[in-house]
Design brief:
The chain has 429 residues and is an alpha/beta fold.
Length: 429
């Protein structure tokens, strides 16, 4: 009894200190990020944090990502750790995941939350071109990433041992297991449930303890602006693959028809956007070279009689290039098979039929002008001995016989044209 009375003043002091903590009550700022971590995503998060700091509100980042670029991930981690307001990373909705770079963002947040039926982990690093790193460089990159994730986990009081395994062994956890192992702080069904569970939570922001007041606060959404949305959309692997092919088709049109202008302009724009997209993604440039080689084979088919071998080779090269363009284990970081085959067959058909027919027409017999008169048939209207008049194409022409005298009324064939004089011969029976 005496011991409990001895502790009562200390408990009262702690309760008094808790009640006097500054309350953090303001409209909640909600960001939604679904897709690859890249410079566009980093800029979006930075803009959202600046806006939340101006309104002194709690920021919730609803996250669903397969991972992304290491540089952009580190920039976003710095934005979260340097924020002057509470930042909550919420892996949602159901079915979402925070893989690879997403794990680092979740670990960096003062509050880490997940929705039911979501996953987190699989953060083993890959190379700048998407391929598996090998040798000494693999050890360096893996050790650096492991040290980074451990530091973030310890700073936020989370399971650093598991976080290191996620980097070194690519392990993953469901939301329930992540909560049991101390990887996240709470599970919330939706944003409203998250608001209720955040209410009253104490956080340390800029070396100051604050108490969240979120239960009855309104939500202010900040979405990607028009430019960010456009740039983020074209950063998808399938879109980048399509833009690259459209760009090369446009430039081919312009080079084969100088002065057309429009195909060249469209092709140039598509290529520039494709290069931007490739820069946003872990691109394997061997895939880019294969796609370029495919177009060379398609063009060569127009000038070389290969009986379709070059076209088949072009299709194979284009398909392999699409498969290798973003060599990643995450489905969101690869070109879909449907897009690859659709583009490959469409491009091959375009070169085989459209351009092939145009070239065949170009190489065909000329039917107008002086050249169009060659090998035409007519009738001698006077005796040609060797000169006279012939009737051709509804007109009378001066002609000279190249095969001896030709009697009036005989059928003639034009051999050549010199100025307005036809060189003709008697048509053989």
């Amino acid at each position: 009894m005496l011991r409990s009375l001895r502790w009562t003043p200390a408990l009262l002091i702690l309760l008094l200190l808790f009640c006097t903590l500054p309350a953090f009550a303001a409209p909640i700022t909600l960001l939604t990020l679904k897709g690859v971590i890249n410079p566009v995503a980093a800029n979006y998060l930075s803009r959202g944090i600046r806006s939340a700091e101006k309104s002194n509100s709690t920021l919730i980042l609803m996250l669903d990502t397969p991972g992304g670029l290491d540089g952009s991930m580190r920039e976003m981690v710095q934005s979260i750790t340097g924020a002057k307001i509470p930042v909550v990373v919420y892996v949602a909705p159901a079915g979402a995941r925070a893989a690879s770079a997403g794990l680092f963002l979740t670990m960096a947040a003062p509050v880490a939350a997940m929705a039911p039926n979501t996953a987190i982990g699989a953060a083993h690093p890959v190379g700048g071109q998407g391929e598996e790193i090998k040798g000494t460089m693999k050890d360096k990159v893996t050790n650096d990433a492991a040290a980074y994730i451990v530091s973030l986990a310890k700073t936020r009081g989370r399971n650093a041992e598991w976080a290191e395994k996620a980097v070194r062994q690519s392990v993953s956890l469901s939301s329930n297991d992540a909560l049991k192992k101390g990887v996240i702080d709470l599970i919330a069904v939706d944003v409203e449930d998250l608001k209720n569970k955040l209410d009253g939570r104490t956080l340390k922001i800029e070396n100051k303890l604050i108490r969240l007041r979120t239960k009855n606060e309104a939500i202010r959404r900040i979405d990607l602006d028009a430019l960010e949305s456009f740039l983020y959309k074209i950063s998808e692997p399938s879109i980048a693959f399509i833009l690259l092919n459209l760009g090369m088709l446009g430039l081919f049109f312009e080079l084969s028809n100088p002065g057309a202008i429009l195909p060249g302009v469209i092709g140039g724009i598509c290529l520039l956007l494709a290069f931007f997209s490739l820069g946003m993604l872990p691109t394997n440039y061997a895939g880019v070279l294969l796609i370029l080689f495919a177009f060379l084979l398609f063009v060569a088919e127009l000038f070389v009689i290969s009986y379709g071998i070059l076209t088949i080779g072009g299709i194979i090269a284009l398909v392999l290039g699409g498969l290798m363009l973003f060599n990643s284990s995450a489905p969101d970081l690869a070109v879909s098979y449907q897009v690859i085959w659709t583009v490959a067959i469409s491009v091959a058909a375009f070169f085989f039929f459209a351009i092939g027919m145009g070239l065949r027409a170009h190489r065909g017999k000329i039917t107008t002008g002086k050249e169009g008169l060659t090998e035409r048939r007519g009738e001698a209207r006077t005796d040609l001995s060797p000169k006279g008049l012939v009737f051709l194409n509804g007109e009378l022409w001066s002609a000279v016989s190249e095969s001896g005298n030709i009697a009036k009324g005989e059928e003639i064939v034009v051999e050549s044209v010199e100025d307005l004089l036809l060189h003709v011969k008697r048509k053989e029976p």
